[in-house]
Every structure is written in structure tokens, then in C-alpha cells.
Amino acid sequence: MYEAKPLNYDYNFLEPIISSRTLTIHYNNHYLNYLNKLNKLLKENNYNFRYSKEELFNHIDEFPLNVRDDILFNLGGVVNHELYFSSLGKNEINGKLEQKIKEKYGSFDNFKEEFIKKANQLVGSGYTFLVMDKNGDLNIMNMSNQESPYIYGMIPILALDLWEHAYYLDYQSNRSLYIKNFFQIIDFEQVNNLYEKNL
Questions:
Q1: Are 68 and 60 in contact (CB under 8 A)?
Q2: What is the pTM of this model?
Q3: Residue 32 lies in a domain
Q4: Which domain holds residue 45?
Q5: Bond prior to 16 in cis (omega within 30° of 0)
Q6: Least enclosed by CB within 10 Å: which of 2, 135, 149, 162?
Q7: How far apart are CA 77 and CA 147, in angstroms?
Q8: What is the pLDDT of residue 117?
């Protein structure tokens, strides 16, 4: 079975940007529900958990066609949430990622503006990701529902959850403020580590 990935911080660590109540519900109800459903589906299909969760996207054809959508949806729900939670913290941009962002977008402020603009364009539920391709180039992309950039050969290194459960208790319909405030609680040390690990 795949094990739950614990948070790196207390439930109140992200306040006032994200409340303890929101984070507690998000982690314990939504994330763990995806994980439990995924493990149940995989066990029902005699899967021996030989791949990492990220690798499993590329081996979905090993499962019967009629269960692939359910597996992918719940797998995305697990992997996307884990990246989102690990993206949160309070560390400033640094390392090779900072250099790459300045090279790609001209400045960190330009990158921030582009990311916020892209996130505000997402219709419905989903995520905004900062991804890298096999050459280490960066892109910002929106994905609907629980789709994952891994399906398209991209490696996500930063995730903003734009499902309503991620922000509605704190922001109600003001999703744009949640998106803007996200940049106050990003753990760029973690994001940089992911970037450098996958170069």
C-alpha cells in the first residue's frame, strides 16, 4: 500500500493565509480519502505496488480498461495533493531554480505575474503547476480536476490547488486573493530541491 505523506508543518503554520481548519479538513478528509480509494482500487486489481506513485502514471495500461479512469483520478488526487502540501512553507526563492526563473521570465516578479495570470484563467476545479521538461526548461500549466503533468511527460515541481475545498472556508468566492496570497506561503527551498533533483 501507498503510505500517507505527512505534512512538514503544523496545521496552524500557514495562518492567516490558510487557516488551521481549512488545512485540517483538506489533509485529513480530501487527501486521505483519495489515498484510501487509490489503495483499495489497486488491491482489488492485484497490484503489488512495485512502482512509485509518479511512475504508475506511465504503467496505467497494465490495468483493465474499465478501471483506468478511476485509478488515474485517485492517483492524481494523491500525487497532486502531496505536491501542493509540500509546496507550502515560508522559504524564499534560491538556487538553480532562481537562476532558471530569471533566465526564462526575466525576473521573479515577471514569473509571479505569469503564474497568477495563468491560475486566474483556470475554469472550474484543478491545479496550476510549475513544471519542468526533460531538458530542465520551465513552463506554467493548468490541469483540470485531478489530471497530472506526468501524463504528458512533464515533472511538476510546484502546485497550487484550485479546487474550492482548498480555499473556500477562508476566501469564499474571492479565489483571486487566494491565488495572490499563495506566494506568501511557498516553500521555494523544497521547489528548488525538486528542480535540482530532476535536472
A1: yes
A2: 0.96
A3: yes
A4: 20-87
A5: yes
A6: 135
A7: 8
A8: 98
> How much of the chain exceeds pLDDT 90, in percent?
97
**146 in the same domain as 100:** yes
In this structure, are 109 and 27 located in the same domain?
A: no
Each residue of 54-106: pLDDT tens digit?
A: 999 999 999 999 999 999 999 999 999 999 999 999 888 989 999 999 999 99
Whole-number pLDDT of residue 129 = 98
- Cell 501507498 -> residue: 2
Q: Rounded to an integer, what distance in angstroms lies between the CA atom of residue 121 and that of residue 128?
A: 10
Distance between CA atoms of residues 149 and 63, nearest Å: 20
In this structure, the answer to whether residues 151 and 80 fall within a common structural domain is no
Residues 120 and 39 in one domain: no
Domain with residue 183: its CATH number is 3.55.40.20
Rounded CA-CA distance 23/33 in Å is: 14
CA dist 14 and 53 (Å) reads 27
Chain length of the chain: 199
